[in-house]
Design a protein that fits this description.
transmembrane helix, signal, Yos1, 0% strand, elongated, 3 helices, mainly alpha, single chain
Length: 82
């Protein structure tokens, strides 16, 4: 299987699906720093862990419903073309 545009697109969609199905109550709340909001001083940037948590939350919020038609399209495409 050669790495093409479709394979790259499919890998991106699979990674987005993996992020979107993470359950906050079961998995993410057990990670340190997930639940609370941290107050930073003026001019201080949040740490890498906080940025990753914010990225996961934003991906879950924004990509939840657009991924449904994309997944349907990929499933139909795989059924037709193998």
């Amino acid at each position: 299987m050669a790495l093409g545009v479709y394979s790259l697109l499919e890998a991106i969609v699979l990674c987005l699906n993996a992020v979107c199905i993470l359950n906050e109550d079961r998995f993410l709340s057990k990670l340190p720093g997930w639940g609370g909001t941290q107050v930073h001083g003026f001019g201080e940037e949040p740490g890498i862990k906080t940025q990753i948590f914010h990225f996961i939350r934003s991906v879950k919020t924004v990509m939840k419903y657009p991924l449904i038609p994309v997944n349907i399209f990929i499933i139909i495409f795989k059924l037709i073309f193998g």
